[in-house]
Specification:
4 helices; 146 residues
């Protein structure tokens, strides 16, 4: 019992998120922190899935927002990060997590088309050539086993 009181409160700091970023941060850092906090909040809220009695479906229901949260945080790194090594890692996280979500959904017989990362920049202007294929989707069913 004494050990619990001997541990400084900072040891548990990872369990809570700051209400607001410090005043001394740049506008870009503030935007990064706000987007990251929004991704974390959405992930935690979405992970609170109501149990269905099917362990496999419950697992997928909780893990999907967990992986999507990683995708959303990686997209935020791509938007604001400057370190090229970390940006490459963020890109890998996006691909890997999307594949894992797709694999889990396919394993329980659900379509794997719902998960997409948020755009990291404004969408390109429409091209007037008439070659746009709005129904085209990426097939992620091949090569997902490690």
């Amino acid at each position: 019992m004494l050990v619990a009181f001997a541990v400084p409160p900072l040891a548990f700091a990872h369990e809570s998120h700051p209400a607001a970023p410090p005043a001394a941060v740049s506008a870009e850092e503030r935007a990064f922190l706000e987007e990251n906090e929004a991704a974390m909040t959405k992930m935690m809220n979405d992970m609170a899935a109501k149990p269905t009695g099917d362990v496999d479906r419950d697992f997928v229901a909780m893990m999907t927002p967990h992986h999507q949260g990683a995708i959303d945080m990686a997209v935020t790194e791509l938007r604001y990060g400057k370190n090229e090594q970390l940006r490459r890692i963020a890109q890998e996280i996006i691909v890997d997590q999307m594949q894992e979500i797709a694999a889990m959904k396919l394993a329980i017989g659900e379509p794997a088309t719902e998960t997409t990362p948020a755009p990291t920049q404004s969408p390109p202007a429409p091209v007037a050539t008439g070659h746009h294929h709005p129904g085209m989707q990426m097939d992620m069913s091949n090569g997902m086993k490690k």
